[in-house]
Amino acid sequence: MDSAVRQHRDRLPSVAIPCGDTSLWSVLKQVIGKELSKITMPIQFNEPLSFLQRLTEFMEYSYLLNKASEATDPAERMQYVASFAVSGLASNWLRLGKPFNPLLGETYQDERQDFRIISEQVSHHPPISAFHAESPAFRFYGDINPKIKFWGKSVEIQPKGIFTVELPKWNETYTWSNVSCYVHNIIVGKLWMEQYGTMEIINHSNGYRCELNFKPAGWYCRDLHRVEGFVLDSSKARRLFLYGKWTDFMKSTDIKSYDEYSTSSSNRGLKSESSKESVTHTPRKMLAKLNSLTIGSFKHSADEANGSDDGHCPPEPPDGEIPKSSSTISLEIPNSTTLWIADPRPSYSAEYYNFTLFAMASNELPPPETGIKICPTDSRFRPDIRLMEEGQIEPAAQEKTRLEEKQRDARKARRNRKEKEEKARWFKPSVHPLTKQECWFYSGGFWETKEYQAINIF
User: Fold this and answer.
1) Which residue has the higher pLDDT, 31 or 79?
2) I need a labelling partner for 220 at 20 to 30 A (CA). Which of 105, 140, 207, 334 fits?
3) How far apart are CA 276 and CA 229, in angstroms?
4) Beta pairing partners, 166
5) What is the three-class DSSP state of 181?
6) Rounded CA gap, 40 and 244, in Å?
7) Rounded CA gap, 153 and 149, in Å?
8) Cβ-count burial of 22 within 10 angstroms (0-12 exposed, 13-18 middle, 19+ buried)?
9) Which uninterrupted H or E stretch holds 258?
10) End-to-end CA separation in angstroms for the chain
11) How far apart are CA 198 and CA 399, in angstroms?
12) In sequence order, which residues have a C-beta less than 8 Å from that of residue 63 and are 6 or more positions away?
């Protein structure tokens, strides 16, 4: 890892490329209800980063895992791990550009003062990206097989896969899966997104768990971005209440303060749990109705479709409208502790694909004086991404097509030789010992390699 903090760039070489006259609806209307990972999208709808680089943005608030390792109380450790899980989604807000699909064998590495991470595209069909981050205080690893579907008015991104955090100091292992992301107003209006669903973080070492509910916006807009849930101990007793917005912050409070606040008559209109509203406003009858919807109802009417494989989906607001977050009604429970606050984006972020400062630096090559060696399969060497961030859209599109054709030709040649798909170099598949699901695990050796073999994938 870097021994010194170096200055990273704070903007891209060129501002974002306008999409022109091509609309997202014109591209997607032929694939309603289908899985989009195999659909080639025009480069205008991309952002100049690989999905492997987007994965690395989960590490932007890695200090939360350091805090978890330092905490002596298991409930406190859980609250920081849960906040880290939420913080990894914050950079998604306003990022409506699609990252480039990684090529089989493509890698991305990053070395910061307090962690290092390696990721690799380990499978092409289905597309699976695996990563492994480590520091003296923690290990964070997992894989994602993104499922993308178009439901008529919305695009749904299901991040299939398991994330794992290990805290060696406490011999603890935590796992969770991310919630789905929905992009609305595909046909008419301005695009906007929300994260929706339930995220369950499990500490497999002591039985603690945290269930976080990502609220849907729907027709009732006061819950936009809101997240809330409880930390439960091994006997299922409530230890802490966590709340906030996945775009902005997370806080925690003790159960006594939560109970007193939720039953108080002076809590700015917030009702008790036994009333028709939850602590963050969503009417319970409405949530029950939404949770009863099944995917079958959407298959019968594509024009009204917006769903997911598990049968749970957020409702659509009126056509073209964007819910407004009730930032003036700020939920603030007495005796709360602020766990995480998102770093503000630069004022010019909208000119650069709504990137955070962390994302701005993702595609820069380290200066020679750092002595950092980059593997030749690294995303930063992709010519299509490099050209796009420089504002050269037509050459970028040509390079994107060339790389896709090169990958197809290589796959065809392997089939003709009756060879199996190339094995991943830095990861191997195995069954997760705790979740019993198949996952990809780092096999070691990347950081110790002095001379990376020049694999020609670009």
Assistant:
1) 79
2) 334
3) 18
4) 139, 173
5) strand
6) 37
7) 11
8) exposed
9) helix 255-263
10) 27
11) 40
12) 114
Q: What is the mean pLDDT of residues 95-124?
A: 94
The helix/strand/coil state of 88 is coil
| Structural tokens at position 330 | 């700020």
- Cβ neighbors of 411 (< 8 A, separation 6 or more) are 104, 124, 421
Q: Does the pLDDT value for residue 30 go beyond 90?
A: no
Give the distance, in angstroms, between the CA of residue 230 and the centroid of all CA atoms in the same chain.
22
8 Å CB contact between 331 and 250 = no
Q: Are 166 and 139 in contact (CB under 8 A)?
A: yes
Q: How confident is the model at residue 292 (pLDDT cuts 50, 70, 90)?
A: very low
Report how far Cα 73 is from the mean position of its chain's Cα atoms: 28
- DSSP secondary structure, 358-424, as one string: HHHTTTPPPPGGG-----TTBGGG-HHHHHHHTT-HHHHHHHHHHHHHHHHHHHHHHHHTTPPPPPP
Radius of gyration of the chain, Cα coordinates, nearest whole angstrom: 22
Contacts for 448 with CB less than 8 Å, ≥ 6 apart: none
**391 CB-near residues (< 8 Å, 6+ apart):** 13, 14, 15, 17
Strand partners, 123: 128
| Averaged pLDDT score across all residues of the chain | 83
Residue among 226, 199, 246, 208 nearest 94 (CA) = 246
Q: Which two tokens stand for residue 58?
A: 């989960």
User: Two tokens at 96?
Assistant: 């409506």
Q: Is cis: bond before 126, omega within 30 of 0?
A: yes
Quote the CA–CA distance of 126 and 143 in Å, as a whole number.
Answer: 12
